[in-house]
Amino acid sequence: MKVVLMLAALVSVATTLAIVAALAEPTIEFFATVSIAEFFGSTTWGPLFNPPSFGVWPIIVGTLEVTVIAMIVAVPLGLASAIYLSEYATPRVRKIFKPVLEVLAGVPTVVFGFFALVFVTPLLQQIFPFLNLEPRNALSAGLLVGIMIIPIIASMAEDSMAAVPNGLREGSYALGASKMLTSVRVVVPAAFSGIVAAVILAFSRAAGETMIVVLAAGAKPVFTVNPANEMATMASFIASAGSGDLPVGSIGYKTIFAVGALLFILTFAMNWISARLVQKYREVYD
After folding, report:
1. Cβ atoms within 10 A of the Cβ of 218, count?
2. Angle at CA 78, nearest 5°, toward 117 and 157?
3. Which of 166, 196, 216, 262 is most enclosed, with most CB atoms within 10 A?
């Protein structure tokens, strides 16, 4: 049984190593042609145009902008849901609400993207005409990506809060604290490491989202921080470029791997930070 469990764990490690191996050679060949200074020193992105330009900052900014909007939506709603399920909901309500919340994570992302395109954007254009939203924009994409990752934060944070010993809650109540004060000042700090892990995992998931961004935000690589504009992200570029007729071995083809490697490094760094924070702030109870 130990061998079986070890093999199951090695599947993830082997997959990660395979991804690194697949990205490494084309990425090295790409940077043998395009300098790192040009890649990170320009704000014009058009590797498939003639003449090509390889300034990656427009899609980096687009990725971060959509992700930040998503986190602004998901973190408060996810934590509020987790606090309710952990501290306020009865066992019967929790048994109903938590599976329903987690079903949201199983909705295909193409459905979220289509919903953002045909409903959310027109609705925002009517309610906030002064924003001058384009038909495809980062704001709608970020809102729907945020809704998509709410179950990740809510479920993982609720599990962490549920693991906090009841003795801490009882001690807080004995000192005269209310349920809300106990939840915010006792339970949440005690479950902080698990909450941080949930937030960073959700951040990584949002940064790599593809279909919602392709449908709702578009694929126009514009260097802007205005969420009302159409823009591209790293994942949407990979999806749009990879679905075209690019000759294998061309510089455009290798660009996909270079951007993929950059996105991989970003998500790997976030997960590494998550692991360090969990280790630093982890609370161990007897």
Report:
1. 24
2. 140
3. 216
CA–CA separation, 223 and 209 (whole Å) = 19
Residue 96 to residue 210: CA distance in whole angstroms: 30
**How confident is residue 76, by pLDDT bands cut at 50, 70 and 90?**
very high
Res 285: pLDDT: 57
Angle, CA of 277, 65 and 67, to the nearest 5°: 45
Distance, in Å, from the CA atom of 286 to the CA atom of 38, rounded to the nearest integer, reads 55
Residue 186: HSE in the Cβ half-sphere, 13 Å Cα cutoff: 24
Q: How many residues does the chain have?
A: 286
Distance set, CA 244 to CA 29, 195, 241, 257 (Å): 21, 40, 5, 15
Mean pLDDT for 48-72 is 90
For residues 228-247, average pLDDT: 84
> Angle at which helices 192-207 and 57-83 pack, to 10 degrees?
140
Residue type, 130: F
In whole angstroms, give the CA distance from residue 145 to residue 157: 18
Sign, Cα dihedral of 274, 275, 276, 277: positive
Sorted by sequence, the CB contacts under 8 Å of residue 137 that are 6+ apart come out as 121, 216, 217, 218, 227, 228, 229, 230, 231
Element (H, E) at 53: strand 53-54
- Cis previous bond, 51, omega within 30: yes
